[in-house]
Amino acid sequence: MLVRLLPEQVPKLWDAVKYASSRANAFGKDELPYYFNTLLLALWNGKAQCFVRVDDDRVLNAVMITRIIADVVTGRKALLIESLYSFKSVPNEEWESDAEVMRKFAKNEGCLSVTTYTNNRRVWEILEVIGLEERFRCFVQNFNGGE
């Protein structure tokens, strides 16, 4: 079952949220402190949302971080899946159930789409299973200290 954490519940699961979001995203070690600080602030003030999947025994199985944004291509309100991480392998039916919760939340917030960025091939598969389609690919070249 996928549930949205209230801002005051985030500190109780902060270590798991940090772990999941660092594993789900391709951040360098030097980028993590800034990301974690801004993420925690955004979760506390409601600018980001944390959804967790728990099993029948209330054991944490997955973490999803979302934000409501203006889509970078269309300018329309969208739900951005910022990170998606599962602590264990689950059947596609569970991902489809989670996606329905996420879509309902997005629609209730007035979002016209759901979008995400990832470099993880397994996440690509999950996104296709839940109905997202590839729009474009993003490439980046990082520079070391401007050299």
Can you describe this structure in just a few lines?
The protein is of the alpha+beta class. Helices cover 34% and strands 24% of the residues.
What does this structure look like?
With 147 residues, this protein is α+β, with helices and mostly antiparallel strands. It has a single domain, classed as 3-Layer(aba) Sandwich (Aminopeptidase), CATH 3.40.630.30. The chain is built from four helices and five strands; from the N terminus they run E-H-H-E-E-E-H-E-H. A hairpin with a 5-residue loop joins strand 2 and strand 3. The chain is globular. The model has no long low-confidence stretch (mean pLDDT 89).
**What distance lies between the first and last C-alpha atoms, to the nearest angstrom?**
48 Å
Question: How would you describe the shape?
Answer: globular
**Sheet with the most strands?**
5 strands, mixed
- Can you identify the CATH superfamily? Gcn5-related N-acetyltransferase (GNAT)
The overall pLDDT, averaged over residues, is 89
Give the strand tally: 5
CATH topology: Aminopeptidase
Report low-confidence residues grouped into runs of 5 or more: none
